[in-house]
Design a protein that fits this description.
Keywords: Plasmid. The chain is α+β, with helices and mostly antiparallel strands and 168 residues long. Helix content is 27%, strand content 39%. The radius of gyration is 16 Å and the shape is globular.
């Protein structure tokens, strides 16, 4: 069992069925879109996703990501460790994690159906990077970065199911 020193979570009410929300959240490239495009929180970096034949949609499926930050290579591999449609999915890193502000981590979501909507809980458990510089950067920015990632994932999921407004 892997122990993590830090955690964050976000809750969001989403106006859709558990099945539709799970289908949306089950796509690693979709929920990781905040890392695929350069942004201020990514310091201009972006990650490229490589999915195996199961595309991150089955227990044991592997997701690889790589990119660079200010010329330094970034890479991480994750494996789906729990997948129970339409209620829960969890994945975690394995092997060497080369990231700037967080190190080994476990991410997941839970969907709790209610009347007319679903409550989405997205969480991350993480450690800082293992190097001395990584630990320092992690202490300064790791928590904020983790919360930003979760917020982006939850907001994008909620926006996907917002009713469209038609102008008169």
């Amino acid at each position: 069992m892997i122990l993590y020193d830090h955690s964050a979570q976000v809750l969001k009410d989403v106006s859709t069925s558990a099945e539709a929300l799970f289908d949306y959240m089950d796509d690693p490239a979709r929920i990781g879109s905040h890392m695929r495009e350069p942004s201020m929180m990514m310091l201009g970096a972006r990650m490229i996703y490589e999915l195996d034949e199961r595309a991150g949609r089955a227990t044991g499926s592997v997701i690889k990501m790589h990119g660079s930050l200010l010329g330094l290579p970034l890479s991480v591999e994750e494996v789906i460790v729990d997948r129970r449609p339409p209620h829960r999915k969890t994945w975690r890193t394995f092997g060497r994690t080369r990231l700037a502000v967080i190190g080994a981590h476990q991410v997941g979501f839970e969907i709790m159906p209610a009347k007319g909507f679903c409550r989405l809980r997205i969480f991350i458990n993480f450690n800082y990077p293992s190097s001395i510089l990584g630990k320092l950067i992690g202490m300064m920015f790791g928590g904020a970065y983790a919360r930003w990632c979760l917020r982006r994932m939850s907001e994008e999921a909620a926006a996907q199911f917002q009713p469209s407004v038609v102008a008169p």
